[in-house]
Amino acid sequence: MQDIGALILRTILTYFVVFFVMRMMGKREIGKLSVFDLVISVMIAEIAVFVIEDTDRHPFHSYVPMVTLMIIQIGISLIIMRFRGLRMMFDGKPTIVIAKGKLNREAMRKQRYNLDDLMLQLRENKIASIGDVEFAILETSGKLSVIKKETPIRLSRPATYASYASLLDDHRIDEEKEPIFPPKFRFEMLPIPLIMDGKVQDDNLEKLGKNRFWLKNELQQKGSAEFKEVFLCTIDHNGKLFIDYARKPNGQS
């Protein structure tokens, strides 16, 4: 019974020590975990576990390293606030993965950031098509910041409700045309990848009720003859294709 009471006391004491250390390290630690922050957090968590498990060791033998790590984190944070070069070394720097609607595949390769990661984070940002993105920046925390392209609507005459509504109608899908998506199609995956890394996503084509012949015909209209020429091809909710080429199509300079 005495051992259980001592264990509970160590746990409570460790909780307050860890809480104090994390609180002193500031909101930056909670809001954004850079590699530097993550290393410190993992080390503190591991030390806290040792305090509770190893009852033969005096708790202060572990609390001292925790406080030491806190001092290191605060000290380095104050230093890198003044010197941007050191800040880039510890935190890294943001990476532009989409610029003016074009994928930066070299930057993605260096960051080991694949297309599935990109599609996931674009959906989280409610982006229906990569073509709608002016810039997408992979932050040092791993978050994708997206800047959409501006699409201002200009009227050639003074705006009225009727003229504005008419202009909007020009941008709507013609309901008389054959719909791209089946009636009960679910749109959670937008934008929908049709080709990734030069490989056709047959399961997505099947969900759309389309086949490779339809896709090849669409690509040929865009100037691409082969699937392997396409690095990424997606379709948005309007049925608009976005194509990023792995290499330039034949006949294009």
TrEMBL record:
Signal peptide as annotated in the record: none
Classification via InterPro entries: DUF421, UPF0702_alpha/beta_dom_sf
Main location: membrane
A cellular-component GO term for this protein: plasma membrane
Localisation: Cell membrane
Superkingdom: Bacteria
Membrane topology: Multi-pass membrane protein
Domain YetF C-terminal: residue ranges: 82-235
Keyword field contains Ribosomal protein: no
Pfam families, alphabetized: DUF421 (PF04239)
Family assignment from sequence similarity: Belongs to the UPF0702 family.
Protein name: Membrane protein
Organism: Paenibacillus darwinianus
